[in-house]
Amino acid sequence: MNLENDQIREEFQDAKAQGEVDEEYFATRLGEVEREGARQEKEALATYGMLEGSDPRIAPLRRALAVWGLTPDDLFQP
Fold it and tell me: Distance (Å, rounded) from C-alpha 23 to C-alpha 37?
C-alpha cells in the first residue's frame, strides 16, 4: 500500500509541475488505495489471524497447520 501511495503522490507532483493538477482525482485514487489495503489486511487477518496467539498451550506449528485445516498427523502419515 505504501508503494502505491508513493506512486500516486509522485504522479501528483509530476502533474503539479506540469500545471495539470486534478486534486480531486488524486484524492479519490489515494482513498481507493487505502480502502483496498484495509480490505486486504482484514481478509488476511481473517485467514491467518490464528497464527498470532497468546495461548501457550497451542504450539505455533499447530496454529499454522490449522490455517490449512491440517493436523500434525497429516504431515507424518506413511
Answer: 21
pLDDT digits (tens, 9 = 90+) for 4-37: 878 888 888 888 888 888 888 888 888 888 899 8
Give the domain range for residue 34. 2-75
What cell numbers appear for 39 in the block? 480490505
User: Quick one: cell of 6?
Assistant: 508513493
Count of domains observed in the chain: 1
DSSP state of 77: -
Indicate the pTM of the whole model: 0.54
Which of 7, 13, 14, 15 has its CA nearest to residue 32? Answer: 7
User: 36 CB contacts (<8 Å, ≥6 apart)?
Assistant: 1
